Amino acid sequence: MDSLEEVIYYVVQIGEHYYKHTDDIATTTKDEEQAYAFTNLANAKQKAIEMEGVVRKREVSYKELQELSEQHEEEYTRLPVEEREIIETFCQNLLDITDE
Q: Hey, how many other C-beta atoms are within 10 angstroms of the C-beta on 38?
């Protein structure tokens, strides 16, 4: 695949788990899709050393990303209005924090 057609990222695998970074807390997950995606190989290697893990290179095409985005949009629109409002308020609050 050409680099204009794909996104390359890296995950850190520790045994049967993957490095996950949430709210400034380093944890692991068994679900690779929930793993932290590094876009910088040097940073991924450093974290792998810290966590005693290995770096795995992953590639995803823009077409796959588009299909996933469409799928997530469909799932989102099926949510009850109240749940969508909670999500939208939360996201707006995040944007307000970053604007400060």
A: 21
